[in-house]
Specification:
Elements: E1 4-8, H1 15-28, E2 33-37, H2 51-57, E3 62-66, E4 71-75, H3 83-90, E5 96-100, E6 109-113, E7 129-134, E8 143-146, H4 150-162
Helix pairs in contact: 1-4
């Protein structure tokens, strides 16, 4: 089964920016990584008027756009899918799934924490928090890794998630 780790944190803590730095570190080590972004507000990926939008609007339960370079799947859901459900339905051929968000999901979590955003962590070990990437000292029972040291975070993920 493909392992999952969720990157969580307060709004504007830099989760996306952090993953933009961490993913190349992991892929540079030979891992194939899938990134999943959680958006609690909903989103539109299809452009009105395009063929895929027209076919979805016509009643297709799932719409797939495929080209020689990439593929996209657009599927309606009746609930907010868990990461395990997303993995089972849509993801294969990768070594690791990293998600941004999914703070209520039951997957291991790494919190991105920046001083000045909030005074306390968003998650605890009870929330399956396994590490914190921070730009300041943090009081916690889990491992704290300097926010600028993505190589050490990749080492941690290799040891705790990929090979653990």
């Amino acid at each position: 089964m493909i392992p999952i780790v969720s990157f969580v944190g307060w709004s504007d803590s830099g989760k996306t920016t952090y993953l933009e730095r961490l993913i190349p570190e992991l892929t540079g080590r030979g891992y194939r990584v899938c990134a999943v972004k959680h958006d609690v507000h909903g989103f539109e990926i299809d452009t009105p008027g395009k063929d895929s939008w027209r076919l979805k609007r016509a009643g297709a339960a799932v719409s797939v756009v495929s080209s020689p370079a990439k593929i996209a799947v657009i599927a309606e859901t009746d609930h907010d899918l868990t990461l395990s459900e997303i993995r089972a339905r849509f993801i294969s051929d990768v070594d690791l799934i990293v998600s941004e968000g999914f703070k209520k999901d039951v997957q291991p979590k790494i919190e991105v924490f920046r001083k000045g955003i909030r005074d306390a962590l968003l998650c605890t070990a009870a929330d399956m928090l396994i590490a914190v990437a921070a730009d300041c000292p943090v009081q916690t029972d889990v491992r704290v890794i300097d926010l600028d040291d993505v190589a050490s975070m990749a080492d941690f993920i290799e040891k705790a998630i990929l090979k653990g």
